[in-house]
Amino acid sequence: MNAFEYVRPDDVAGAVTMVSRDPHASYLAGGTTLLDLVLKDGVVELGRVVDITRLPLRGISRGDDTLRVGALTTMEELAADPTVTERLPFVREALLLGASPQLRNMATVGGNILQRTRCRYFRDPTVAACNKRAPGSGCAAVTGVARMHAILGARAACIALHASDLCVPLVALDAVVHIQGVGGKRSVPLTEFYVLPGDRPDIENVLQHGELITEVEVPLLPVNARSGYLKVRDRASYEFALTSAAAALLIEDGTIARARLALGGVGTIPRRAREAEELLNGAPAVNQTFRAAAEVALRDPFTVSGTAFKVELAKRTIVRILQTVSGVQS
Amino acid sequence: MTVVTANKLLGDPVDRVDGPLKVTGAAPYPSDVTYPGLVHAVLVQSTIAAGTIRSIDAADAEAAPGVLAVITHENAPALAEGPMTPLLGPAPPSPLKDNRILHHGQHVAIVVAETLEQATAAARLVRIDYEETAPVLGIDNPEAAVLRNPWGLETQRGDAAAALASAEVVYDETFAIAAGTNNPLGLFATVARWEGDRLIVHESTQWPTMARQTLATVFNVPENDVQVLVPYLGGGFGAGLRTWPHAILTALAARLVDRPVKLVLTRPQMFTSVGHRAETTQRLRLGATRAGRLVAIDHVGTSTLGAEAANMEFISIETGAAYACPNVATHDRQVRLNIPSPGWMRGPGSEGNFAIESALDELSYTLGIDPLELRLRNYAEVHPQSGLPWSSKALRECYRVGAERFGWTRRTPEIGSMREGNWLVGYGMAGVTFGGAQLPCQVRVSIRRDGSAHVRSAATDIGTGTYTVATQLAAELLGLDIGQVRVEIGDSDLAPAPPSGGSSLATSLGGAIRDAAGNLLRAFLNVLAEDHRSPLQGRRRDDVTAADGRIHLVDDPSVGETYSDILARHELDELAADGEINPQADGAGMAPSGPFAARFAEVRIDAELGLLRVARIVSAVDAGRILNEKLARSQIIGATVMGIGMTMLEETIFDPGSGRIANATFGDYLIPVNADVPDLDVVFVGEPDRFSPIGSKGLGEVGIVGVSAAIANAVYHATGRRIRSLPITIDQLL
Ligand SMILES: Cc1cc2nc3c(=O)[nH]c(=O)nc-3n(C[C@H](O)[C@H](O)[C@H](O)COP(=O)(O)OP(=O)(O)OC[C@H]3O[C@@H](n4cnc5c(N)ncnc54)[C@H](O)[C@@H]3O)c2cc1C
Ligand code: SF4
Questions:
Q1: Has B404 been annotated as catalytic?
Q2: Is A161 in the pocket of ligand 2 (CB under 6 A)?
Q3: Same domain, B269 and B198
Q4: Model pTM?
Q5: How far is A319 from chain B (nearest CA, A)?
Q6: In chain A, which residues have their Cβ closer than 8 Å to the Cβ of B648?
Q7: Which residues contact B528 (CB under 8 A, 6 or more apart)?
């Protein structure tokens, strides 16, 4: 634990300037990811911690067909929002299946999007080989004990999972991230926000150092759509997903008019399953369709011995959520 | 031996006497202790599993703010090895002996600084240059040294090999159980202070008497000059049976910096520093007749062991006692690896039970006999090894009552025949025979002039309820209210006591209290021997009993007088008596029994997703006399939860290349949460045990045993999948 400076600005521009100018500064929201990395694990060394919890970025407002969620809104607050319950029920499910009530009361939506991987090799500074922590050093997980790791978008350089539940329905919904930097504001769809590991697993998203997430804009589902989130794990509660799936379907006369599908627990980033959606759109809502969509969604996985079982598990997870949402029996 | 007879308080579900202190945060745990001038220590642990330290550069750490000392093998004084420990074998090797590394996480330095933050920061500045060699890892590793029958505990009776060769039905399978970590919630802590050559240590231990002996031996001081204090402990589960190297290092640091030093292990350090349940494999062969009579058992248990440490392992210890089978052979193997030393974890023997009780279930399908009936056909009416009658055994009663409460007859035997909605339903059961233990124990009991009693012993309450049952027993035996009894334990200066371990303490301490209470009544009668004013003058122990703060004649309760009156008249502040038990099984004409139990589990399985959830568990337990129904139930419930963890979640994973524990945090090492814990029904059956002076048998551990097999057997009933390796996770069920 190295000594660091702690500051708590109360205006957005000031906070952004402070962090942008200082390569050793970082934002602190709920702290449920950051404090572990800095204080407990000692894998992130900071010179300055910029507490943003007093910035006016907390709260939810409803537009005609979107919900605007301030970055500092907590997971629990978002889950309790009536519009979420009514029009985005799978977002609520994903939130409530995540972490624990204590954590959800601290953890923010912005922080959830930016949570770091749970890979234990990443989180242990005594492990030398971790390309995400030390680019070029190798990957201890690929030859080590991997289970809570990714099989899609993974490669030998890094198989770290993005473990968020919330982000799974959010990518399915085409949520948009609003960002403020020193040079001004910009918006990026969440599906384009994350970067696959490639040769630089340390680069996880399109944010420049110091850019602040101010808001997440979430399109509402049509009133007649149905949605659901399924999270599969050994422990009945308080565990990250081995596999998960978020699905929203609009079904007309037994045919899928519009499908949205995304996967958790399997991707280096929250995975939108676009090819599977294409297959589902216009197809009959029957088990054969669902299985075909699952096959497409899991095409070309990268597995190691500890993660191989997740391929079939993820397919079954997809089939089950599609059955549940569509009301088709297995 | 007689048992305590007609009584009022015993068995009553009295609330914990220490409850208010605990829920208000007033109970001082070792990590709460502080002193003026206290400084903090942080450990530096090896980041390789095997090799040597080439050099240590501690210059930056020593120069860091607040640092008082960086102690390594290069500057540490030589420490003696700890003593041989009754029950457990040799003490763990003393730390900082030389430059050799035997496991990942070995303590290689201890940094002492004015504040915890300074010590933590400085510990990260200690630079160590290692010469790494290939570690020996993996229980199947052919390069690992294997110890055979290391503890002389193997069982032989009849001729198992011959009986197997000629048996009508033969069963031969292997089982594997992952390593597990005890993980008491309270992080282990040591606060050490020297007053000249006297050492005072507040220590997370389940055994102050042994901790004192170990520290005295290691630091070469008389035992009387070491005091170990642990009035409260945040759980132990076996991790506190040893005095581990970190405690020795803390005492060493306190001596070198001449200040009181506190060390609190971090959660990851709890995985490497205070033992764990060894990984095990077992090969089990059974021979049986078609009618379901066991004719042979051959059981080989293999467990992992540290490179130099010792650990008395218990895998097949109950195999010979569990069933009436004429030919039994058990074999113990220990495999030396570069891993942190395993140690006892609550419920040793649960591993062997998993194998035996799974195997019987398999046999029940092979033979077409109900699993419960199969067990009854092999019921051990007498102790099968010694042929002696049990001191108590109500296992048949456990089966009957447990089955009734569970609704075992509703089970349809065909695999996959029970369903609820999309979920497959399975019923499974297991029988449990667990070792009995009563250990030598001493206590001093006194009564003061105000009529209150004081019970003192170096025993501990690790959360199990020692304070409460000791209070109840003393009150009962001395005829006092619970509020008049004060129990003082957790101090090695008091009368020597065995550990809170091996399910032994309540019975051992209870027996000693009973002895002391009798001696105390005798002491009062002695005082009155020449006292003409006393109606009890000249009476003998057998003539009197105690109630309502008075000693009175058994035959005529109106004849007697109060403790207070006696003490006042004789101008005594208090009268004390010592008590002890020193159990001798030899020549007792019976086999001392441990607890027995029957476990019944109902599971739900989502076969497509591999999801396993336990719906309910019924436990019928024979633990002899139940001293406090509420505490006893809590013990069984808590242990059952640990059993669920062992069966479905818990696994200490060693990185195959580096020997580093890959999941040493609560985020990664899964223990059951409330959502995993279903309705747990507990019922006690049986009679007071004849060998135990107070009729009780230990029940702190038996609640774990049998859970794994009951669940695995239910999984088979639901799905037809026989799982012989724990934990049973989703990938095994897909
Ligand atoms: C034990 C445990 C279990 C968990 N289980 C789950 C689970 O089951 N499912 C799940 O989805 N998640 C889970 N989580 C993760 C949890 O949801 C995240 O830690 C949390 O959402 C992070 O939010 P925070 O506000 O605490 O972020 P912080 O820790 O404060 O910040 C996280 C990162 O984001 C940056 N940051 C935060 N806000 C902003 C912003 N507005 N703009 C730019 N940068 C920002 C910080 O600098 C930091 O790098 C779990 C976490 C823990 C500790
Ligand atoms: S998987 Fe990624 S984060 Fe984990 S060790 Fe490999 S490179 Fe590091």
A1: no
A2: no
A3: yes
A4: 0.97
A5: 10
A6: 234
A7: B534, B536, B537, B538, B539, B566
